[in-house]
Every structure is written in C-alpha cells, then in structure tokens.
C-alpha cells in the first residue's frame, strides 16, 4: 500500500508541474518499483508456503499423504516415496585468530513429516533405520571416566531419594551429550542394568555416543513439540544469555533450538520427532526416569506429550533456563504444569547454577510413585 501511495503522490506532483524530470527516468523508476513490489509479494507467499505447505519438504505434499493414510486417495495414483536425504553442512568459524572448519552430517526423511506420532510406518522407521540399538554383543563400555555414582550428583539424588537399588529400569535422556560425561542415566545402566533411549541432537556428540557402547537405544534427533515430525533450526553454537545491554557479561548455553536465526552462527535444520513416537518405536514401556535437558524449551516438550497414553514415573528437568529463551515459560510454570498432572516437586542437593543464579534442575515424582518408594526430600 505504501508503494501505491508513493506512486500516486509522484503522479500528482508531475501533473501540477511542481517537479520536472526526464520521462525516461520516470519509466525506469516505475518499472523498478513494480518489480520490487511483485518480488515482495513473492517472498511473502513463499514464506507462507514454507510455514503452511511443502516449501521446505522437498516436494512431498503432506495433504496428499494424509489423504492416502486415511484411505481417501489411492497411493498408486501418486508418486510418493519415503526417500532419505543424507545432509551435510560445513561452517568456517573464526576462533580467535584461527579459522576452524566444522562439518555436520544429519538425515532428512520428508515423508515422515506427514505422519502422525502414532503412525506405524513412522515408528518402524525410527526403530529400524534411525536408532542405534543397544549394544548386546560387546558388554563393555569405552569411557573416559568412572561410570559409578560419582558424577553427576543428580544421579545420586535420584537413587537415594527414589529408586534405591532398583534394577532393570527404563529411562529416556534428552540431551545425552556424549553419553558419558555428566550423563544422569549412565550410572543406572552400568550399576543396575537399566536401559532406555538416548536422544542427542548434536551430530558431533552423537558420533561420540556411538563409540561408548551404551546398552540403550540411541538416536540423533531433537524431541519435537508437534504431533508430527518437522524440521527445526538448531544452533550448534548455542544461545547467548546476557546480563547487560552492551552484551559484555553473559554466557553461552549448549547447542539448542535457534531463537534468532539472524544471529545463529552454526545453524542446521534438524528433523525433530515427538517423544510419543520414540516411545512407541520401542514398545511404549513404562518410563521410570525421563531426563529432560534441552536448554530452555522443556515446557514446550512437556506440553506436547499425550500424558494419557504414556507412563512416566519420574522426571528430572532442567528448569533454570525456562523463560530465558521460550518466553511463555518459567520455572514456576513448569512446576505448576507438573503439579496439575499429578507430580510432586523435589529439590536436588548442590544444584545451584551461579551463571543463572537459580537452582538448575527439578525432580518431579508422580504421586503414586512417591507413596510406592516413600520418597522424602533429603
């Protein structure tokens, strides 16, 4: 509208003779303005297509796929394939005076974005194609530290307050990092024979995880906040938290969902999957312990879980970044949300984060489990 009004203004001035210009120049300017206006419309339409349609799904039309799944269309009439794209993105990043090159490798499966979280094809692909299965052939670890209950202290609190010497439990750890350093679930697996699902979005850390020989499923993905898989921008350099307007005092978080893509230094587009899909892929077992550490987006994931379809007893949630990235979140909102679901909050010992000046993690124990294990705050 602004462009149209400006053209009218120029026309009236020309008609009144208040400005005199070369007509050839006027034509040129008008043509440029028309092209700019048309281009703007194209960009807007493209952005809308990206958000609502198949713009970034490699031509796979999810509307058609969903109609095929419902039986409304014959799949033989359409060329719909579940193809895999092996993605690779390189970054040249200046660290001080040295330029370091990073290569991130990840996978896109466009068809999966069109399937609901409980779709049997989706869960089969997750288990058979995208998950590394528990290492049963070689019952040993290749670790850089003692996997006993020494580090992290979160594992000690969970053992002492809740599970004691419980064996053969099941866990999910979202944000498994290298699957050994500070892994909350590692001691339970090593000492008490637990297994579960390890979720790690960082390709580099995931590669290290594969060398550890964990007795659990492992997948290179991010836990999504939608009912279907989808692509999400992920900043491998992490987000920045600043305590002053000049951006001089602050710290970097671990790699996480991109907040401002214009400022993201190492951004790749990962394909995220619903937690429910991951659980269905391994039989939807009772989850004794769910460790959720995804740098500030914990509440969004919690709200995406179909709680009436899963059985999760205890959650260990990083809460100190809540509200610093996902603006409609806060530690208090997470506590309130979990309370309504029937979970009591317990505190970790020695869990103050001097960077955020908050307690870093909160334990949430379902009330029937509080009674079962006689959970008392220590």
Helix content percent band? 25-40%
- What fraction of residues sit in β-strands? 15-25%
CATH class of the largest domain: Alpha Beta
N-to-C series of helices and strands: HHHEEHEHEHEHEEEEEEEHEHEHEEEEH
Span between N and C termini?
65 Å
Structural class: alpha/beta
The CATH superfamily of the largest domain bears the name: Vaccinia Virus protein VP39
- Total count of domains: 2
Low-confidence runs of at least 5 consecutive residues: 34-55, 247-252
On the 0 to 100 scale, the average pLDDT is 79
Tally of DSSP helical segments = 11
What is the number of beta strands? Answer: 18
User: Which term fits the overall shape?
Assistant: globular
Notes on the protein architecture:
The protein is α/β, with parallel strands linked by helices. The chain folds into two domains: 51 residues; 263 residues, Rossmann fold, CATH 3.40.50.150. The chain is built from eleven helices and 18 strands. The strands form five sheets. It has an eight-stranded mixed β-sheet, sandwiched between helices. A four-stranded mixed β-sheet has the order 7-12-8-11. A hairpin with a 4-residue loop joins strand 16 and strand 17. Helix 4 crosses helix 8.
Nutshell version of this structure?
The chain is α/β, with parallel strands linked by helices.
